[in-house]
Amino acid sequence: MLQRGRREAIITAHLAALKGIPWIEQEKGVIWREPKGAGDLCELILERYKVGQPHPQAEIVRAWVQVVGARHAGQCTPVRITPQNALVIAVNNPIVRRELQFQERSILSRVRMLPGCGPIVGIEWRAG
Predict the structure, then answer these.
(1) Degrees (nearest 5) of the Cα angle 18, 21, 25?
(2) Closest-CA residue to 91 (of 122, 125, 62)
(3) Angle at 95 between CA 89 and CA 96, to 5 degrees
(4) What is the pTM of this model?
């Protein structure tokens, strides 16, 4: 059987969770945190997820026809940017992929000229 204090702490924690009240459980019970205002949380979320700020992937998608050319734009697509700052491009045709690999330097230079895309260091090619 749980000790009286521990049992009360668990019950209090569950009630807090049901009511949506923030809490931190520690060895000797429950410590209540200061509630944050909705405005503070919104600012934190906007800052953390960079909402409203230019994102490199969005810039690449917008300028995709200029980056790879109209001829290849429909046969390949930018997938993501890796943590190592490499642009992953999915190409649905191996012949087109090879043609694009021959143009990798010029594609990379056009990508780097886009706003926020300067840190991109390379391209990874994927079937897709």
Answers:
(1) 95
(2) 125
(3) 40
(4) 0.62
